[in-house]
Amino acid sequence: MFRNVIVRVPSETICNGITSADLGKPNYKLALKQHEEYVSALSKTGVNVTVLQPHDEYPDSCFVEDVALCTRECVIITRPGADSRRKEAELPDMLETLNNFYTHIEYIEEPGTVEAGDIMMVGDHFYIGESARTNRAGAEQVIAILEKYGLSGSIVPLQEVLHLKTGTTYLENNNLLVAGEFKSVPDFEKFHRIEVEDEEAYGANCIWVNDYVIVPEGYPKVKKAIKALGYKVLVVDTSEFRKIDGGLSCLSLRF
Ligand code: CIR
């Protein structure tokens, strides 16, 4: 169960966010509206939401998921692999907020790089994507920190997508949504896997929050499959975030 969520309002500079999507620039006003709808969907799940203010110098800073890994024992402040995002992990308002919730604060250090969009929590185990943003040194630091607190981690190499959670979501109760390259990860064979077709691949990035699953607007097959598993489904449009490779999970820290 999650009690707390942290989000950051998108900044007007969101149109300069890093992208590989070729879907045009995000519309700022629409992004703000979608972000408000995201916060209201989260509020329906019973969590307490802390809303941080925008930071114009960091166009991608609404994607707060990447700057910290929140576990039940500690928070790990990451060291983002993207140069333009590195200092997002040092923003004082985020650090102060996390400090209010956690006694144990750990840090990823050079030469490690980690973006926590690459880290998927399954109970006390954390799958860590080794990606263009999260390197092996970073992943190994995460595992060493987790082990200090009685938690564990393992590495899943990825090639095709930005972050691990771009293409896979753990829905609790042993259910795992998988798209693309994650359909054939041996470590995931033990889960009840729900395969997402290529045409709905973006829909593989959902979030489970307290028996609700928040699903992006426009992915009917994903939505139907999740409903069939008995979850309460909330739908939020993330079209403007998709334009800069962002999705539902990227927009919050949940713990
Ligand atoms: C980036 O390229 O870093 C951002 N434009 C998108 C980050 C998405 N975050 C995530 O998947 N956790």
List the topology elements:
Elements: E1 4-8, H1 28-44, E2 48-52, E3 68-70, E4 75-77, H2 92-101, E5 105-107, E6 119-122, E7 125-130, H3 136-148, E8 152-157, E9 168-170, E10 175-179, E11 192-196, E12 207-209, E13 212-216, H4 220-228, E14 232-236, H5 239-242, E15 253-254
Parallel strand pairs: 1-2, 4-5, 7-8, 10-11, 13-14
Antiparallel strand pairs: 1-15, 3-4, 6-7, 9-10, 12-13
The structure holds citrulline.
Give an account of the 3D structure.
There is one protein chain. The longest helix is centred in the first third of the chain and has 17 residues, at 28-44. This protein is of the alpha/beta class. It is globular and about 40 Å long. The strands form 5 sheets. The chain has a 3-stranded mixed sheet, with helices on both faces. A 3-stranded mixed sheet has the order 3-4-5, with helices on one face. A 3-stranded mixed sheet has the order 6-7-8, covered by helices on one side. It contains 5 helices and 15 strands. It has helices at 28-44, 92-101, 136-148, 220-228, 239-242, and strands at 4-8, 48-52, 68-70, 75-77, 105-107, 119-122, 125-130, 152-157, 168-170, 175-179, 192-196, 207-209, 212-216, 232-236, 253-254. The model has no long low-confidence stretch (mean pLDDT 98). The protein binds citrulline. Citrulline binds at residues 17-19, 60, 63, 65-66, 82, 85, 117, 162-163, 166, 244-246, 249-250.
